[in-house]
Amino acid sequence: MKNFYETVQERGFIEQVTDPESMAAFFDDEVVSAYIGFDPTAESLHVGSLVPIMALAHLQRHGHRPIALVGGGTALIGDPSGKKEMRPVLSRDEVQRNAEGLKRQLSRYMILDGRQGLLANNVDWLAPLNYIEFLRDIGRHFSVNRMLAAESVKQRLETGLSFIEFNYQLLQAYDFFHLYSHQGCRLQMGGSDQWGNILAGIDLIRRIKGGKAYGLTFPLIVTSSGEKMGKTAKGAVWLDAERTSPYEYYQFWINTEDQDVGRFLSLFTFLPLEEIQGFSRKQGAELREVKEVLAFEATAITHGRAEAEKARETSRNLFYGRGPGMEAVPFSEIARERLEQGIEAYLLLVEAGLCQTRGAARRLISQGGVNLNEERIGAFDQKISTKDLKENGILIRIGKKRYHKIFTP
Hints:
CATH architecture of the largest domain: 3-Layer(aba) Sandwich
Shape: globular
Number of helices: 19
Distance between the termini: 57 Å
Structural class: alpha/beta
Strand content: 5-15%
CATH class of the largest domain: Alpha Beta
């Protein structure tokens, strides 16, 4: 049986790794505790966080111990890595509320009972730190020249990097040091933009403890068309069912570009690679069935099999015309008085959250991509009114597969 490192390597999770030769043997010799940090800037994570989540889930499936670290302390500063400007500063109450939301969410993907897996919040050890002692005991191990050479810092120096953000690397390195000292954690994983922070933690452990630690980063996932994975016309695809319904989540995956299906099956499902390789050889009409597998498995992992089955049935009914299947279709409401006056089609798309901007809505309609009650909208300024209501609702279809129902209360 392949160990964890071999598994994630074959499935496409790895971009950079420290000491790759000893890393493979590392997972054969002992039960490994490894951590990934999650930034609580919102109450929910989105699809962009799935690669690290799946990596921790694979780690646990191989008998190791994942540590999901919620950055309740570091979020009060904000990670400058990969950011063009300083993030808005969140209050302690906002960070705490978001951290609680992430804790509930991460527990759906892995067992976090303290023994098989651990859920931690770095505010527990960062908040009590004495600043003078921290600078004396930790800060003295950091070279300003080396910190300035980090790519994430160099990029921000052009636009302005605050002193509080400059301290972020010290705090993240201290997280690794703390988890190494108190939880026996010897591996940190994260996105490729975290490479410098991970190396700083490894170096701090070596300097203070004389210990050996490891780092591993994941690639930024982009689609075959070059777009950042996880973005749609409506914005981010959230893991919270209140923000992105299970049906919308399923539709996101079933609309995967043809060239990405095999890669996404490897990254975002637990299906065996041998089975995925068989799927990858299918073409044409059979590819729709493979996309169904991807959408079902990904939705089941995040929302449970019952919701995945409901979303699949609704999607099939709408796609093949076998039934209304509207119970899982996302919907919004609009005041009847508003419809009585008439509302231009492109404005309706924006108000319903189907397009982020008026310009995007006009382009979509002009390209013939929007249907109203299964009839194409001919002009972006076409007036939609109460005469378009069917049983107090209007069914909008974008492209071939994306449906939305508008009701009047």
